[in-house]
Amino acid sequence: MNAHQALVTTDSDLLHQAFQSFDDAAVTLQQSYQTLTTRLEQLDVELADRNEALGKNLRVNEELREHLTAIVESLSTGLLVMDTEGIITRCNQAGEQLLGLPREQIVGCSLVACLKDAQLDGDAYPLTTRQGAAVSLSQRALHTSEGRHAGRVLLIQDVTAVRELEDRLQRRNRLAAMGEMVGRIAHEIRNPLGSIELFASMLRRDLHGLPSLRGYAEHISSSVHMMNRLLTNLLLYTKPDCSHGEWHETEVLMVDALTLAAHAVAQTKIDIRLDVNPHASRMWCDAGQMKQVLLNVILNSIHAMSGGGTLTLSATLTEEQTPGRAAFRLSVSDTGVGIPAAQRSRIFDPFFTTRDEGTGLGLAIVHAIVEGHRGRIDVESVEGRGTTFTMVFPHPCEESRTGRRTLTARDCGGEADNPIMIDAHHFIEEETSA
After folding, report:
1. Is residue 117 part of a domain?
2. pLDDT in tens, 197-224
3. In whole angstroms, what is the distance from residue 43 CA to residue 11 CA?
4. What is the pLDDT of residues 355-374, one digit of tens each?
């Protein structure tokens, strides 16, 4: 083998080795590619799983956020959230309503400025909103899960119902104390009153032949009877007898009370409407006492409508006393002059009256009888627009029900300028004194 052949052999071996190394590198590269592809497929699966888990967590978080937002927006308590600088960052719907401001005006505003705009920057308890609701304010510090201070939360609580309950309890206690005092005085007065009546009757007998002097004795006797009627009303106020409860037709009770008030209605231009819900066609009560209640409230409403108006008597069932249990709701509404706000807390006090000829016992007796029936009475009044007395009583279950009838003077042929009292079947043509 010459030198040329040896050189060719060496180059061939080198080339063969180079191809072999290339093949080995290609195999290694192919294996690495397959490994990388397998790893990428695993990463794709892991990424898909993580994306799915992340999406699920996002959906859960979104549902939780929506649920918490719905809860916050459904609260009857106003909620304001402030950051560490005292700037309001969140407000719920109740907060808007109680503050009387749009959310755009609340969020981004300082708490001090917001309360000033809502006229709730006083220090009285309770505060009164521009809508007339009584509210209380309370603040709480807001902390993160790590305990870091993150701002404050202001709660605006509507305490109107609580205040009404407090006022009702105070009124009940006040009237109970006054009733006890009035009852004792009435009993003490009745004793000498009986003696006066006895001597007056003896004088009438002895002065039979002296008409001029006998008239004085009769005046004494007449005054004694008047005082006795007053004392009877006082005793009715202190201890109303409501023990004779039975089922009675609601409309009949209303019409009977209107009949007793006919003498007052005949002198006015008042439309009378009866609106009895079919489920409230009968009520459990002492008929005599309930007529007294309706009569006193009706007379009070008539006196408030000296220039004419509309008197509405309505009855329906409600669940406002105890959830799930029916309560009987009886209302008497007028379109009269209304009751001044300063007098509303005193209208049930004995001897409080705004009329020269009144005794101030009518509404006091109404309150006592309603309490005797284990009910309550509420008053809503707007000066110049009218007053509504609403009485709510416990209502036992009773199966028989009748249809709904709404009666007006015009519906039954009464004249609008001189309406007369009506019931379902006939007009009341004769005045009946109370």
Report:
1. yes
2. 887 888 778 877 777 777 777 888 888 8
3. 46
4. 766 667 778 888 888 888 88
Highest mean pLDDT among 98-102, 163-167, 189-193, 333-337: 333-337
272 and 366 fall within a common domain: yes
Asked if residue 50 is part of any domain, the answer here is no
In a domain, 40, yes or no: no
Q: Is residue 424 part of a domain?
A: no
For residue 297, with 0-12 CB atoms within 10 Å meaning exposed, 13-18 middle and 19 or more buried, which class applies? Answer: buried
- What range does the domain containing 208 cover? 162-238
| d(C-alpha 406, C-alpha 276), whole Å | 7
Name the packing angle between helices 362-372 and 211-238 (round to 10°): 40
Residues 85, 116 within the same domain: yes
Query: 270: which 2 tokens?
Result: 């008042």
Rounded to whole angstroms, the Cα distance separating 66 from 62 reads 6
Query: What total number of domains does the chain contain?
Result: 3
How far is 412 from 430, CA to CA, in rounded Å? 17
User: Which two structure tokens, joined as six digits, stand for 72?
Assistant: 């916050």
